[in-house]
Every structure is written in C-alpha cells, then in structure tokens.
Amino acid sequence: MSLRHAVLGLLTKGPASGYDLLKVFDVSLSNVWPATQSQLYAELGRLAEAGLVSVSAEGPRGRKEYSITGEGLAELRHWMTDVEPARVMRSDMLLRVFFLGQIDPGQARDYLRRQGEFATGQLERMEGIRDLVEKGQDDLSVYGRIALDYGLRLGQAQREWAEWAEKQIR
Amino acid sequence: MSLRHAVLGLLTKGPASGYDLLKVFDVSLSNVWPATQSQLYAELGRLAEAGLVSVSAEGPRGRKEYSITGEGLAELRHWMTDVEPARVMRSDMLLRVFFLGQIDPGQARDYLRRQGEFATGQLERMEGIRDLVEKGQDDLSVYGRIALDYGLRLGQAQREWAEWAEKQIR
DNA sequence: ATAGTCATGTAATGAGTTACATGATTGC
DNA sequence: GCAATCATGTAACTCATTACATGACTAT
What are the tens digits of pLDDT across the range A70-103? Predict the structure, then answer.
C-alpha cells in the first residue's frame, strides 16, 4: 500500500488537491511510483475516510484541498521507520534475457544494444534534471538529489551491463 | 502480460506440469518475475484455451504435463523481438528516500545503512549462485549468467549508492 | 464565444496476493 | 499406518490501467 504513503508524503509539503498531486506524481514521482488520476482520487477518498487526511478547503470547480492530519503524519513515520521495503523486483526486460536463446544471435545482440541505448537516453534525461536542481538546500531538493543519484548509478550499471552482455553472445 | 511469456519461455526447455513450473519460478525466476501457485495454474488454463500450450500427458494425482505449441513459440518470439519491455519501475525503497526529511537524521542514516546492508547480502547470495553455475555451456546457463550479472552490477551500484547517501545526511 | 485548463469522479478489466480446500501417491 | 510430498483448483480481495463522463472557470 505505497500509493497511500506517497500521497501522505507529498502532503507533508503543504495542502494540495488531487489535481495538484497528480501533476507532482507525473513530474517528480513518476519514475519511482507512478499513479494514475483515477487511482489518486480513489486513494484520497479512502485516506479521508480513514482520517489520515482531511479536506481543509474547497475551491472553484469542486476543488477539494487536502491536508495531512496528525494521524496521517504518524502513519507516514511508522511506515518509514518500521516497515521493511518490499523487494519484489519485476523486470520485463530481464525476463526476456533468460529466453534469448530462442531468437537468433543477431537479434539477441540487437535486443541488448537497444537496452543499452535506452539506459543511455535515460541517463541523459536524468543528467538534465540533475543540472536543473543543482542548487536548493531544502529537504525536497536534498533527498530528491539522493534519489536521482540512485537512478544515475543504476542507469550507468545497466548501460555497462548491456554493452558487456552484447559481447557475450557469439 | 509477462507471466504468460515467462511460462512459454520455460516450456521451451521441455514439457512440464504446473507443479514443476512453480518450483522453477521459485528457484530461478523469483528475482525477475515471481509467480504464485494460483496464478500459474490459472495462466496455464488460459494458455491451453488459447492454443499456445497443450496438455501433452497426464500422470498420477491428476498431473497434467503441458507442452508449448507452434503457436506458443511464435507468440514467444514475437514478444521477444517486437514488443518493447515495459519500463514501469516501482520502488518502495526509493519512495521512502523522498520523504527522509520527515524522520530525524539519525533514523534516516539508519535507513540508508540498512539498504546498503541488504544490497551486500543480496550480492553475497548472488555470488554464491554464480560460483555454482560457473560452468555450463547450454543456453540456459549462458543467459542465466548474463541475467545474474545484471543483478550483481545493480547490487554493487545500490550498495555504493547507499554508502554515499548515508554520508550526505548531516 | 470558445478553447484551454482545471477538476472530480465512475466503470470495466486485468494482474497479483493470500487463504482455503481437496485429495492421491510414495517412502518408511 | 502415517507423514511428506505431489498436485490441482477456487474464492475473496487489493492494486493498477484504460476509458468514459461531466462540468466549471479563465483568458483571449
């Protein structure tokens, strides 16, 4: 149930509507925990019902602004300190590698090259973001940069792996 | 729909029952595409209905042995060469990093240290597996090792990241 | 006026998890 | 005889995706 905690976490930065949160998900959390519009609105409803957030203001067009409650903050901190992260890793990309013997070696090399190129593209994109958020001393920036660095290191590892793997197939 | 392709891929190595496949999932595919028993039996039923696999033998205790059909092989190859891998990355672990400012710095450093330790443990486990499957020239071994190498490189990157990240928090 | 954006919600479907249920066969 | 393992299946529930539906406000 991490969507719930993603929402609580974002609300620690101030009240926001479902619409606001959706934009934040799309730009800043999409690589870590993507969420769709319908999921978000449904989750906000459940959070409000559970008392972890409350509707703190209503605006034009039926806008509802949600704020995190004390209970919500407590739940967020509990999740962060006491709940072990789930380690279910599912990779469509890596699953294919197991079955590369089913296609011919040229195609298999193509596949691995494409994965390397994809990683390279991701890296360029992330480096662009890193340069944009270079400065900024607030928590958001500090921890956002740490998360971004994770992406950069993983991207580099994946690119190097793909280049190496391509050479393993003869 | 990758479970479907994972099953097809495993069946290229010979006929197997749901029970057989479950064990293979548990030992060799669990880190890439975990599957539960109920999911597997249901998927085998659907695959048989779609004509991608067929019941090639029946054994004691209602055992059904499935074989991949020509259609199934074609679908597997299509998936491998023409379908772009999905890149939805969801990380519970990384999501928490965004909100590390909500707990105190000591706890945040603890969190990152635990993630580094976890990566180290995973690495040791994977190195053990690597030493076991060192030899073996069959496709299964070759591509299995390539997949394992991916895990090793990612684990190393994660360990180094966690060690670095811990130092960023003061 | 009208296009763009703000804003919320519902419905259908698919994928995955956990728990329950049942029974046959094998080895000791 | 009995425990372990082999073997399949169903049900309830949660989570996520895609598509549909509706309408208010704002700036030009």
Answer: 999 999 999 999 999 999 899 999 999 999 999 9
A28/A100 same-domain check: no
Taking the C-alpha atoms of residue A7 and residue A139, their distance in angstroms, rounded to an integer, is 17
Distances (CA, A) of A67 to A14, A19, A21, A47, B167: 7, 14, 12, 11, 32
Q: What is the pTM of this model?
A: 0.94
CATH number of the domain bearing residue B13? 1.10.10.10
Q: If residue B43 lies in a helix (H) or strand (E), which one and from where to where?
A: helix B37-49
Give the pLDDT confidence of B94-151 residue by residue, as tens digits.
999 999 999 999 999 999 999 999 999 999 999 998 888 777 667 667 899 999 999 9
Of A46, A61, A82, which residue sits at a domain end? A82
The number of domains in chain A is 2
Chain A, 79 to 98: residues with Cβ < 8 Å from chain B are 79-81, 85-98
Strands B64-68 and B53-58: antiparallel
Res. B78 pLDDT band, cuts 50 70 90: very high
Which residue from A119, A97, A10 is spatially nearest to B98, judged by alpha carbons? Answer: A10
Residues 6+ apart with CB under 8 A from A105: A169, A170
| Best to test chain A binding among B137, B161, B166, B167 (most A CBs inside 10 Å) | B161
- Range of the structural domain that residue B121 is part of: 92-168
CA torsion A6→A9→A15→A16, rounded to 10°? Answer: -20
